Amino acid sequence: MRTLVIGGTGNISAATVRTLVDRGEDVTIYNRGRTQSETVSGCRTIIGNRYDHSAFEAQMADAGTFDCVVDMIGYDPEDVRSLIRAFKGRTAQVIFCSTVDVYTKPARTYPIVESAERSPSPAFPYAYKKAVCERLLEEAHDRGDFAVTLIRPAQTYNDSQGPLSLIGTGTHFLKRIRRGKPIIVLGDGTSFWGAAHRDDVGPTFAAAIGNTCAYGKAYHVTAEEVFTWEQLYQTVADVMGAPPIDFVHIPTDLLGRMAPKAAAWSVVNFHYNNIFDNTAAKLDLDFRYTIPWAEGIRRMVAWHDARGSIDSSPDDPLYNKIVDVWRALGESVVREMASLDA
Q: Alpha-carbon dihedral of residues 3, 15, 209, 63, nearest 10 degrees?
């Protein structure tokens, strides 16, 4: 198989390319050459900017034909229109890295299956644009331009990435947990979330390449463990040997008003339940969830501690300010209500 991976050095795509190289595939990656990856030495690289659509299409014409094209970095509908122009009739299959965020939120039923309604809010541009991209590719599939496979990961992490922090960076978040500082959760902290390691997700993309069972289909590759946000974060504390977490519960809409930029994804995404059915990927792509959250955190903490990047992470003044303001407000409300009973 002659495979082109657009991207190839990112979180999921690096694991995908590594899988392909290890099994002896003929792999070319296309990116701007700015990110080093352990996979680069095992494959050819074409340097370019896929967001310069005319230049990208010219380069692809010069590159010849591919058995499969894997687009890991298409986010805008114009990116996909360019992809279709570049490869119509010139590849057997296009695999598109989409997202579970294309589904309508909140879902009508759980776990969410691949046929669920896909009507994300325009207020969530990432999800909205990905949904449009999917529709464009489905139309290309129906026209016979090439076969299309859509893969929808949820949160995917690796050893160097900190756990998802609702405010601030991952390494700062690990430092807060290690030092027993208050941790913000949305609402009462009992909505559900999960995360999958890229070493489980990447090989599933590789398994879809040339797999005729996957033509015209969409797949979830998401966590098999589902936690409340409190459980998710408490597992991090347990693995680190940190004190029990002092949770700060803030309503999502109010947090969004307190920190509109920093909490934007909390408002449009993180407070919704993320529970997905992976059955199709297990059957067709041999997807396996082999790295539990606790093991992934153990690997992550070891990676960062070897580099001193948790303890050296700078404090986040915004995070501290949100906690202080919210707790002061809570105490004020309690005092006010107590005065009514006096």
A: -10
Domain limits at 108?
2-158+195-221
The answer to whether residue 65 sits within a structural domain is yes
In this predicted structure, the answer to whether residue 34 has a pLDDT above a threshold of 80 is no
- Beta bridge partners, 2, equal 26
Is 320 a member of any domain? no
The CATH number of residue 120's host domain is: 3.40.50.720
Compute the mean pLDDT over every residue in the chain, rounded to the nearest whole number.
94
Question: Is the pTM of the predicted complex or chain greater than 0.90?
Answer: yes
Tokens 């297990």, located at residue: 282
- Tokens linked to 53: 């659509």
Residue 170 maps to a domain: no
* Secondary structure (DSSP) of 299-324: HHHHHHHTTTTTTTPPP-HHHHHHHH
In a domain, 281, yes or no: no
- Identify the three-state secondary structure at position 274: coil
Closest by Cα among 24, 100, 73, 114 to 270: 100
| Structural domains counted in the chain | 1
Per-position DSSP letters for 188-210, written without gaps between them? TS-SEE--EEHHHHHHHHHHHTT
Element (H, E) at 219: strand 217-221
Q: How far is it, in rounded angstroms, from Cα 85 to Cα 53?
A: 10
DSSP, collapsed to helix, strand or coil, labels residue 156 as strand
- Whether the pLDDT of residue 130 is over 80: the answer is yes
pLDDT tens digits for range 157-205: 999 988 889 988 889 999 999 999 999 999 999 999 999 999 999 999 9
CB 227 within 8 A of CB 190: no
